[in-house]
Design goal:
By secondary structure, the protein is α/β, with parallel strands linked by helices. The chain has 15 helices and 14 strands. A hairpin with a 4-residue loop joins β1 (3-9) and β2. α1 (69-82) crosses α3 (131-144) and α6 (188-202) packs across α15 (391-405). The protein is globular. It binds adenosine-5'-diphosphate. Adenosine-5'-diphosphate binds next to α10 and α12.
Amino acid sequence: MKRVLVLNSGSSSIKYQLIDLNRGVTAVSGLIERVGENIGARDGRLTQHLHFDDGKETDSREALDIPDHATGFRLMAEHLQDCGLLKDFHDLAAVGHRVVHGGERFSRAVQVDEAVLAGIRALVPLAPLHNPAAVTGLESARDLLPGVPQVAVFDTAFHSTLPARAYEYALPRDLRRRHHIRRYGFHGISCQYVSRRAALHLERPLDELNLIVLHLGNGASVTAIEGGRSIDTSMGMTPLEGLVMGSRSGDIDPAILTYLMAHADLSPKDVSRLLNRESGLKGLCGSNDMREVLRRREQGDAEAALALDVFAYRARKYIGAYTAALGRVDALVFTAGIGEHASPVREAILEGLSGLGYALDRARNAQATGEVSEIQRDDSRARVLVVATHEEMEIARQALACVEGGVTVALPER
Ligand code: ADP
């Protein structure tokens, strides 16, 4: 039986899904929240959703004490075993862990051993908000499920094919090398899933397809894919660069940082907070939620209209740039919360791109639903697809491929 448990460990949460790869479905999905908060007050939450073979679904929600991640994983294991959909953990082909940053070392999914764990730990300075939780998840799952292969699947790995002209920043060589400063790119797992899905839909081999993938969620990025390989992407050394996001600025003049530090008395920590948590849609109009931005714009709110305009214009510029990088584009692919569900945002991005030959059909755009929809006009230069992403399915697929193929690691040293 090809079943993989997929884990996504955050600083105060654990998301898990039991994926059945034979049938391509999620059997159990769960969320553990508020880990380590208000210990003793049963302030932790465990929500579990079961999907039975006959189509029935059930939900459960409990308030528990979850003082640390190890407790969270133990509770997850108990709930998984009690629910009846996973009798024995040894039925699992693997546990697949989402790891945000694979740095220069990890260019594909790898089975975890002490050396891999040390490698992921060594990348903590590059991803201080994400990699520590992944390490905790890997250690906890290893202790809890001995004998089940643990596989790390990296969000950066898909972008390991970027050419130097795309990943190098124009900074002094010694600094770049010593501090590992380069563009890594993120959202790779989602890009891999949706590009595979797009290739199936288009009935073309992925390695012949040129795509521009717009992953528009709370975090947002654009990726240029040539022959199935990432050749450029808008997120950089960190997930802060590129598009306007929910609360992240995306591209700004780097001199603004030193200017603010000198004139607004901001520390490096203040600046980081400002750019990551107080900027983007939130900075422009006070709301980081696109649904609310759209609602307010409908009501004639000028700040919300401006926020959408800046968001869409930035995305449009990246589509133009990546069209130039690719030459031939077979499809634009919209995905994630905004990309999949916000037809007015897709319209705002694509209007004005007719000069490049991209043309949206308004009725098809408004009706897009399900796994894959086509929303271009018949005379568009490329297809425009809306594809529902499924990162857990992709992590499960890569984890299984890793344990079955035994593939391991590494980008060449620079
Ligand atoms: P995350 O990056 O946290 O996984 P998601 O992919 O869930 O985020 O995307 C969240 C964003 O998607 C939010 O800005 C939310 O407002 C937006 N979104 C979700 N559903 C809709 C919808 N129906 N219409 C407009 N925006 C939506």
